[in-house]
Amino acid sequence: MSSPEPYKIVVVGDGNTGKTCLLMSYIKNEFPIDYVPTIFDNFTTQTVVDNNEHKISLWDTAGQEVYENLRTLCYPNTKCFILCYAINIRQSYANIINIWIPEIRHYSNNAAIVLVGTKSDLRVKNSSKFVTTAEGKRLCSKVNADSFIESSAKIKHNISEIFVEAVRAIKKQDRTLHCSDKY
Ligand SMILES: Nc1nc2c(ncn2[C@@H]2O[C@H](COP(=O)(O)OP(=O)(O)OP(=O)(O)O)[C@@H](O)[C@H]2O)c(=O)[nH]1
């Protein structure tokens, strides 16, 4: 019997929000200090979620607008988008609604979404400069994402949790689609 296709998970969001670092932290347990726009290769790995083993394939994308045509080539068959904004860059938070939701929904209506507020290590308590956790949660329900997590690749906070949530969201979405097929 052939093994099932890996779940395709694509990481998107503005440039400089920490997408490559998040993947490197998860896969290689590394945190690259210098900003090097997207060099992470696609990577397939195994993960155990709720006592079941799953194969996942991870795709990095380039956030800059000039790469839009290239980026969208990898959207077909995506099971889950990890949608990133950086908590210290308010524009990247606004762009979730301005740019990213319209772009990913144009290519995929059914994919699950995990919303991630990156660089949580940078937050200074009570400073309005930073996107708050409450604002993140509000955005999550506004865009109908499956879950919301704040994380930091730098201090390895909530990194594997992102992918656990992604697999759970994919399984939930698969169940919903199977059910609706029957009616
Ligand atoms: N403090 C802090 N800095 C981070 C974190 N993650 C990434 N960075 C820094 O943010 C910058 C951008 O990180 P990248 O991972 O290259 O960002 P990207 O979203 O992949 O950027 P593009 O490839 O342009 O789309 C780098 O200087 C990283 O060192 C984090 O969790 N905390």
TrEMBL record:
Record's bilayer topology term: Lipid-anchor
A cellular-component GO term for this protein: plasma membrane
PROSITE patterns: RAB, RAS, RHO
Keyword terms of this UniProt record: Cell membrane, GTP-binding, Lipoprotein, Membrane, Methylation, Nucleotide-binding, Prenylation
Keyword Lipoprotein: yes
Keyword Electron transport attributed: no
Gene Ontology biological process terms in this record: ameboidal-type cell migration; cellular process involved in reproduction in multicellular organism; developmental process involved in reproduction; epithelium development; hemocyte migration; melanization defense response; small GTPase-mediated signal transduction
Domain of life according to the entry: Eukaryota
CDD domains named in the record: Rho (cd00157)
MF annotations from Gene Ontology: GTP binding; GTPase activity
Gene3D superfamilies xref list: P-loop containing nucleotide triphosphate hydrolases
Location relative to the cell: Cell membrane
Cited InterPro entries: P-loop_NTPase, Small_GTP-bd, Small_GTPase, Small_GTPase_Rho
Main localization, broad class: membrane
Similarity comment: family membership: Belongs to the small GTPase superfamily. Rho family.
Name the record gives this protein: Ras-like GTP-binding protein RhoL
Species the sequence originates in: Drosophila lebanonensis
